Amino acid sequence: QKKLHKHKRFSSLDLKGVADYIASGKAKRIILFVGAGISCNAGIPDFRSPETGLYHNLQRLDLPCPEAVFELEFFKTTPKPFYELAKQFFPGKFEPTLTHWFIRLLFDKGLLLRCFTQNIDTLERLAGIPESKIAEAHGSFATSRCLECGKQMETARVQECMQRDEVPACDHCGGLVKPDIVFFGEGLPAAFFERATDVCRADLAIVVGTSLQVQPFASLPRRVQCPRVLLNHERVGDMGTRADDVVVLGDCDASLRELAALLGWTAALAAVAAGD
Ligand code: APR
Ligand code: ZN
């Protein structure tokens, strides 16, 4: 008989209800499911937003289709488009957003069970959330390796090649080097599956800035048994279909700024964002 969370409900299906739920101490293991939408305010375009999304802007690279830029077979024959794109959002050029800082504040308050991210920009790490609390479902630029012999290449070396608009080649065998981000057709990191069991332990799930179009990540929010919140420009996945789902459509930074205010965390959020 699954432990029913009947007592674990929001007092009202809005941010005030979510704030009351957290303030009441019912949320001790908060799980986050985030995507490219949380980095848009940092200046990194997302993928599928009309007009501004990367897949819209990739038309100019005359790819067979936009997603080809993240397809392994295409990359092996034509690596340049990927590296041109990667230059746009290689780590080191962008700062965390208010959303990243809010997740860091949850960690500081001992309330963060795990942050599942689809993003490869490593802004969660830059916001000081420990790696043990992050599941980078689609890998990240943090490490790169040769596709022929598997030898790792330091990020700094990869970055140098990219600055010179060169495709990084392995210094051991001359093979093509690829950052450890997950391309279509590749398996997700083991850590993703090991940590996916967290969904059974969460007592609050917050989905932010993702279209929930890519599996297996998109199936995670369906598997939680606890109350769920969506903070996104648009309704996505099955969010909003459960009686106790809270859906707040709009800018995620604005929604989390309001949630922080409702929780009395405005000063704490400003302090963590200022690196205090
Ligand atoms: N506030 C709230 N929502 C936003 C904001 C914002 N400031 N900016 C964008 N969004 C929403 C968009 O409306 C969209 O629903 O974030 C979502 C972004 O969706 P995608 O662009 O599809 O990004 P994501 O869901 O992370 O893509 C998943 O697809 O291409 C692969 O591997 C890539 O990890 C990526 C995966
Ligand atoms: Zn090699």
From TrEMBL:
Zn(2+) binds at C146, C149, C170, C173. Residues 8-266 form the Deacetylase sirtuin-type domain. It is found in: Golgi apparatus membrane. The active site is at H138 (proton acceptor). Belongs to the COG4 family. This is Conserved oligomeric Golgi complex subunit 4. It comes from Neolecta irregularis (strain DAH-3). The chain holds residues 702 to 977 of 989 of the full protein.
